[in-house]
Amino acid sequence: MSKKDLRFNSKTIHGGQQPDKAYGAVMPPIYQTSTYAQSTPGGHMGYEYSRSANPTRTALENALASIENGNYGLAFASGLSAMDAVIKLLNPGDEVVSTNDLYGGSYRLFKQVFEKYGITFHFIGMQDAAAIESHINEKTKLIWVETPTNPMMNVIDIRAVSALAKKHQLLLAVDNTFATPYLQRPLDLGADIVMHSATKYLGGHSDVVVGALVVKDKELADQLYFIQNASGAVCGPMDSFLTLRGIKTLHVRMQRHCENGKAIAQYLAKHPKIEKVYWPGFEDHPNHEVAKDQMNGFGGMISFITKGSSYDDAIKIVEKLQVFTLAESLGGVESLAGHPASMTHASIPKTEREKSGVVDALIRLSVGIEDVDDLIADLEQAIG
Ligand SMILES: Cc1ncc(COP(=O)(O)O)c(C=O)c1O
Question: Which DSSP helix (H) or strand (E) runs through 145?
């Protein structure tokens, strides 16, 4: 059986992998080297300088391509540097249509770094894919989708946006950080580029900062490899190793994240002090049908607000949590809680973020894989 034909839960372990050529090591060694001996100028064994390529990074890049059903994977120093590489495909004067409710750092990269180079970004709600078309003009080159969105858990119909992108000959990039390929595979749904903050679920243990891109098309891959090498924001060998190790348990971790996420979403929804819970698994979630169709589950990311929508109440809850850690980031084995308005989304102006629902009373949970009864007990004592 070819490794290309493996099912997802086997690809996480074997996809794109082979024993190391030197001694048959089952896990790729951490090739902690910047350079490689050459017998004559250009006479090397496939690697010449670790910014261009490194064997441990290659093993990770092959795994990334495999789990996302792509042909080419690229690993970066962070999720934002992976996004940075995608925007560098564009030229001054080009326009991008982007999800309005997206990770604050992504918004900051687009607005505060790239707008000054003459690239224009339109941030719009994409829950109704048809509404996107009115923002497309002859300068538009890229549609940037994040789904489910951070932190409002809106779900965007990737197939519908892809049809639009194809009609107007635009690139479609999808930030798949929240869902991971366990739940959703954007390339299969018509996207050209899938991007990850591999810092999150792919790494899975809150011990690396890594980014990833996966594509199917060779020409697009070559352009991105050129930018990766030319700009140099690559992922080091140790982080490549740790991310690869994380990917090997992605499917079992995600299964538990989804189970625990569901139990906690349901607990919060019934709580008398909770006003609103945002989780795409609820039947009354506005994009539940799309989520059911394009995802294999609903994940462990949940946002909620308390009755009265008070900033002080939200802060008191996150301060009281003991099993959940108050921290930036998400997707690790341990449960984290965050206050988007003052943490992950503080770089978005208040008026802008409130338009998409990121109010001061919003709390975001990254539900980990601990015993769910301990997590519920923790929320119970913190909410009171
Ligand atoms: C959805 C999403 N995209 C991109 C990023 C940026 O990734 P990184 O922090 O690895 O640069 C994050 C980080 O929180 C994220 O949550």
Answer: strand 140-146
Q: What is the residue type of 315?
A: I
The residue behind tokens 């030319």 is 230
| pLDDT the model gives residue 288 | 97
Residue 51 annotated among the catalytic residues of the structure: yes
**Alpha-carbon distance 356 to 97, whole Å?**
16
From 57, 185, 200, 364, active-site residue: 200
Nearest CA to ligand 1 atom 2: 103
| Catalytic position from the list 51, 108, 256, 276 | 51
Helices 55-67, 237-247: inter-axial angle, 10-degree rounding: 30
SS3 (DSSP) at 375: helix
Is residue 77 within 8 A of residue 211, CB to CB? The reply is yes
Q: How many CA atoms lie within 13 A of 294 on its CB side?
A: 26
Q: Are strands 325-326 and 336-338 parallel, antiparallel or unpaired?
A: parallel
Give me the residue label for tokens 């994009």: 287
Q: Residue 96's closest CA among 123, 117, 75?
A: 123
Round to whole Å and give the CA distance between 285 and 277.
9
The strand pairing partners of 153, in sequence order, are: none
> Is there a catalytic annotation at residue 200?
yes
CA distance 213 to 141: 18
Inter-CA distances, 173 with 176, 195, 211, 312, 379, Å:
9, 7, 14, 37, 36
User: Where are any strands of DSSP class E within 271-384?
Assistant: 274-278, 301-306, 325-326, 336-338, 362-366
- Which residue's entry shows tokens 């497309």? 136
* 228's tokens: 């990766």
pLDDT in tens, 126-158: 988 888 999 999 999 999 999 999 899 999 999
Angle, to 10 degrees, between the axis of helix 218-231 and the axis of helix 79-87?
110
pLDDT in tens, 242-293: 999 999 999 999 999 999 999 999 999 999 999 999 999 999 999 999 999 9
Ramachandran assignment for 180, one of left (phi > 0), alpha (psi -120 to 50 degrees), beta (any other): left
**Phi, psi angles (nearest 5°) of residue 356:** -100, 10
Atom of ligand 1 at shortest range from CA of 199 = 10
Side chain identity at residue 57, one-letter code: R
